[in-house]
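Figure 6 in text form: structure in, sequence out.
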C-alpha cells in the first residue's frame, strides 16, 4: 500500500503492513502508538475472524459480515489514530478496502451572548441590599447583648454563604446574585466596627 498501511491477519494475530523502501514489513500493533485498548481489540478481532474462517460453513454469512464490519471499524480507528489511510484485507473473502482517516468533527462554536449588564447589575444591587440589611440588623441586635455575638454572627453568615457563592460564581444568572451577596458580606464586615461602638 502506498502512503498508508494495510490491516490484515497473520496466523491469529492482527498485523499492520507498511512499505519499508520496496519491501513490505509487517508490524505488531503493540509496537505502534495505538493504545492498549485498540491493540487488544485488533488482536481479539483477528482471533474471532480466524475461528469464523475455520468453521465458515457452520457460521454462515451473518458471522462473516460481522467480522468484516468489525474489521472495517477497527481499520477506521487505526486510520484516525495514525492519521494515514489504512487498507483493510478481509480475512474471509480476501477483498481489500481503503479506509481514509476521518477529520475530527468541528466542535460547534458557542456564540457569545451579550452580557446583560443592566439586568445583572440590578439583580446584584437588590441581593446586596437584602443581604446587607439582614446581616447588619442581625449583628446590631446581637451586639446589644454582647459584642462577641455580633462578630460570631458575621463569621457564621460568611462561612455559610461563601461556599455557595464560590459554586455559583460562573453560572449565567446566579453569578449576579453571588456578586451582590459577596459585596454585602464585605460591607457588613466594614460596618461591624461602627455597630460595636
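Output sequence:
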Amino acid at each position: 500500500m502506498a502512503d498508508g498501511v494495510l490491516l490484515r491477519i497473520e496466523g491469529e494475530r492482527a498485523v499492520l503492513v507498511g512499505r519499508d523502501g520496496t519491501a513490505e514489513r509487517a508490524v505488531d500493533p503493540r509496537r505502534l502508538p495505538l493504545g492498549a485498548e485498540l491493540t487488544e481489540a485488533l488482536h481479539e478481532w483477528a482471533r474471532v475472524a480466524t475461528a469464523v474462517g475455520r468453521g465458515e460453513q457452520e457460521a454462515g454469512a451473518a458471522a462473516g459480515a460481522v467480522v468484516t464490519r468489525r474489521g472495517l471499524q477497527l481499520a477506521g480507528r487505526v486510520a484516525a489514530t495514525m492519521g494515514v489511510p489504512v487498507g483493510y484485507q478481509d480475512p474471509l473473502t480476501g477483498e481489500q478496502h481503503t479506509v481514509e482517516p476521518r477529520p475530527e468533527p468541528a466542535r460547534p462554536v458557542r456564540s457569545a451572548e451579550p452580557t446583560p449588564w443592566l439586568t445583572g447589575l440590578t439583580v446584584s444591587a437588590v441581593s446586596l441590599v437584602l443581604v446587607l440589611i439582614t446581616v447588619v440588623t442581625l449583628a446590631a441586635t446581637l451586639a446589644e447583648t454582647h459584642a462577641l455575638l455580633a462578630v460570631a454572627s458575621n463569621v457564621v453568615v460568611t462561612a455559610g454563604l461563601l461556599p455557595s457563592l464560590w459554586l455559583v460564581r460562573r453560572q449565567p444568572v446566579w453569578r449576579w446574585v453571588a456578586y451582590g451577596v459577596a459585596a454585602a458580606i464585605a460591607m457588613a464586615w466594614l460596618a461591624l466596627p461602627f455597630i460595636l461602638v
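Caption detail: The longest helix spans residues 56-82.
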